[in-house]
Amino acid sequence: MSESALIPPASAYFLEDRHDPEERHTLSILVDNEPGVLARVIGLFSGRGYNIDSLTVSETEHDRHLSRITIVTTATRPVLTQIKNHLGRLVPVHRVNDLTELSLQRNDETSLERELALVKVTGTGDIRAEALRLADAFEAKVVDATSDHFIFQLTGRTAKVERFISVMKPVGLVEVCRTGVAALARGPEAM
Amino acid sequence: MAEQMTGAEIVLRALADQGVEHLFGYPGGAVLPIYDALFQQDKVRHVLVRHEQGAGHAAEGYARSTGKPGVVLVTSGPGATNMVTPLTDALMDSVPLVCISGQVPTHLIGTDAFQEADTVGITRACTKHNFLVTDVNDLARILHEAFYVATTGRPGPVLVDVPKDVQFAIGTYVGPNQVEARRHLGYQPPRQGDPEAIRYAARMMAEAERPVFYTGGGVINAGPDASRLLRELVAATGFPVTSTLTGLGAYPASGDNWLGMLGMHGTYEANMVMHDADLIICVGARFDDRITGRTDAFSPGSRKIHIDVDPSSINKNIRVDLPIVGDAGQIMSEIQRVWREEGLRPRQELADWWTQIAKWRARKSLSYKKSDDVIMPQYAVQRLYELTRGRDSYVTTEVGQHQMWTAQYYGFDEPNRWMTSGGLGTMGYGLPSAVGVQVAHPGSLVVCVAGDASVLMNMQELSTAVQHNLPIKVFILNNQYMGMVRQWQQLLHGNRLSHSYTESLPDFVKLAEAYGAVGIRAETPGELDSAINEMIAVDRPVLFDCRVASLENCFPMIPSGKAHNEMLLADEANDEAVANAIGAAGRALV
Ligand SMILES: Cc1cc2nc3c(=O)[nH]c(=O)nc-3n(C[C@H](O)[C@H](O)[C@H](O)COP(=O)(O)OP(=O)(O)OC[C@H]3O[C@@H](n4cnc5c(N)ncnc54)[C@H](O)[C@@H]3O)c2cc1C
Ligand SMILES: Cc1ncc(C[n+]2csc(CCOP(=O)(O)OP(=O)(O)O)c2C)c(N)n1
Fold first, then answer.
1. Can you give the residue ranges of the ACT domain (chain A) (predicted)?
2. Complex ipTM tops 0.95
3. In what order do the strands lie in the sheet with B473-478?
């Protein structure tokens, strides 16, 4: 074998490991309500390798044909800026608000964020009683029940929903559905 | 008064009202109504291509050489999917295109109908924006909006998908000026740069000891005025200027302050200036990885001003100190105004900087081994340049070594004269692009510098050139290799030349003749000049088979994992240096 054949292949790109700390931010995006707009937003995230931790979308202003998309994403600060700039480039996007950044700037403790979860648990006897007791402690509502199941409805911040789900696991949790985060900036101003 | 007409007539009317004179296209079932309307009018001239990809690149060449949007018409399904490469190419290089595609009738969408493809789905990621028209009464508004989006802000390709029933339906036409309420009120491209930032930029320039202008395709996008303003700004400050591949011609290659192109295959002086500068003024360029090399070693001691119309270009790859978002022309004109009004001057130290630059220039990084027996590819481009100099000429390229040699050795003195696929690096771009350029500039000399591999990718468009009497000159630097691939295999893969040699190339002279074009061949340096002159003199399309040294490589080169000041130069690039160019650290990058 020639000596050059022993040289392992090298890359045409400069590859570097980046170790900047990641942050979790909630973005509120006002868009024209038209076909394909959600696909554009999601395609941007998947195409450029950004994370979507949670996604909520619905028409919010019928007369102006506007929808609001709320995305929770985790990224480094420079990437977060890129995400916002790329979203701003999409033609149907009106505004992008970084609610996490906003609450940091205003020294609010947290931004106003809520999720709704429906949690189904099955079981009888002691375990069933324990499930109900825990649900009560979390202020979850019973929205459906038979003698061997409950469906609880819980509203709260993501952390609370996650805690609730984890305590329900040992007491018969079989199914969960979550809405994803809905969020608004605190205070009187609109976006 | 609102006029009623069919969707197909609306398309033609909207194109005419947008000032479109030429349309590149290929017919098919889903666009027959539009072709019928085309037949019955004479405002818009249709150029029939041989493959939809050819139409797309022709429209790109047309756009890049005129500053106007290029327009394409294709059918549904395969017609639309064949446009994916040119749309992506235009998106990467910020070229304004409007592509109208036919679609199956609305009631058949989603049924896997004949020649149905989810065109808006497929092209969402490769257009600036796209539309599916479901109501004929939206058609005119959408078409006008498509032109607006394609040409404003950071230009790019826009696709309008028009189902066949919408083309037949009768609807209301609205003109470009009647579209008072655009649908997308959120789309507001930035224009004016922040005055405070502009003033600060001018002062930073006056404080700099080792400044450089790093300009890019955005200056070309901003129009000929921006190139003029750049020249004035360079003259006023006396700063050196370099450009990316896509920005060549904004500042003249014959200008005193020109350093040559920068980046991976840029000149020694341009890259050394970037590395050692204390101020970089980036105008309409995007810190691409072919420019920066190792980002952590990129121009470590400089402050950076970045002028760009697209906020997402800023701080994408390199952190800058002063971003200014807006149009390059407007911002340069404001910087000049501040420079004048505040009586700013460059610092004395600028003279020392030029002394240093002279030393780097003396390194003569574009020199190469001359030969009396074989045509060196660099020599071929130099001769082409000398023999076409002073003419009204335009140059396109394919992708590979020949592209880099053209960028290095052909001196562009004006903007919009140079068409190349930079961001996507699309082999097959150059020949159809030349077709589009020649359509826009019928009396000019249009040369496509090609490689023997690339040119075969859209060779069929030679037939388009012959049909429409477009005397393009395809100047093939025939080295019988995919030279650029081979070069990287030599550098990066232990000289294992896996599938980069082209067996069974056609006889290009006979091929030209088969198409009804003219074939010319040159095999020795001695016959080159007269062959080139013959090519220029012929008033028909030409395939020029220029047989060049087959193993020549393209230098200077910044090898992977290296900084700007660790360039590999031609006279140092012996076999051993090439094999060891990528050091242990570079190999560890894999
Ligand atoms: C084989 C090969 C080798 C290559 N080697 C090199 C090399 O050695 N050197 C090199 O330079 N390139 C090289 N390239 C090209 C490279 O890949 C990039 O395409 C190129 O460097 C990008 O140029 P740019 O930064 O000017 O950006 P462009 O892609 O031209 O983008 C233009 C920028 O200007 C902005 N802009 C647009 N309009 C305006 C306006 N009106 N006002 C202000 N800003 C505006 C845009 O937002 C964008 O950020 C090579 C390509 C190939 C295929
Ligand atoms: C469509 C496409 N496929 C593959 C490549 C990868 N590629 C880059 S340069 C090159 C070789 C080009 O060879 P040729 O046209 O002969 O030009 P040369 O480098 O020899 O001047 C290839 C295959 C590309 N850029 N585009």
1. 26-98
2. no
3. B418-419, B393-397, B445-451, B473-478, B542-547, B518-522
